[in-house]
Amino acid sequence: xxxxxxxxxxxxxxxxxxxxxxxxxxxxxxxxxxxxQVDKPSTSIFAGTAALVPDALNYGxxxxxxxxxxxxxLEAMDRHGVRASALVNSAVCTHYPQIIRAGVERDWAWIAxxxxxxxxxxxxxxxxxxxxxxxxxxxITKATGRRPQGWMGPALxxxxxxxxLLAELGLGYTLDWCNDDQPYALTVSGMLSVPYxxxxxxxxxxxxxxxxxxxxxxxxxxxxxxLHAEAVASDSGRVMALAVHPFSTGQAFRQKYFEQAxxxxxxxxxxxxxxxDEIAEAYRQQRGIPAPAVPTGTNPAQS
Length: 303
Fold this sequence. Notes:
By secondary structure, this protein is an alpha/beta fold. It is built from 9 helices and 9 strands.
């Protein structure tokens, strides 16, 4: 079947896109904060034990992120004034409340990222998925005091029903479709796609492509420089998403490269240090696209 969620839109045919303060590139840091079930396989650094239960090697690698790696990364983020767009599993709210408190103190944006990174919606009925998504959204809202505006599925997974169900819950954008350098409207009324990146993503770079720290840093510099040059040449803004996971980028020997990357982005001319929420809202205002309404009888809390 052909894709019916969005239409083809070649970049040169679009109306110019403007960012606040005349910025050319809107940058956000997609900080993946995830919980994993100990008896299910998931993202792994060593395939040889990935099917074992328990898989101490790979589970421990992932668990390092919430215990150590994230707290190390926060130091660099704080120094360079970079707020996270936190892609958070709702189970994080229960298992790691200290992380939620740290994010609330820093005014992070909270993007619903499923219940945990061991559960996906594949095979769910529409009603089962509606109940699942409702639980995820309401749990995050209660814990953070802010209703999520965006969604990214665990491992960027969706069902064909997911976008319309998210709209029913009052969410307004998804990060799952990594096919653009600008936001765009989906065919579901009020829903947007906001750029995310599989290429500029530490799991891809470090675990799949075996990048070194200097290569990671150079890729970030090259991405920003190219997007900025294109935005200037076309007089139309771009989005740069940097996707990171604390169990990967949060390793001690990568800290200085993460620090240097943030310094480069924060010091670059024409860059708006934003969140994915702010990017979606700026796009809506320019294109006249209202967000889906938050359903009555739910918690619409916004901080």
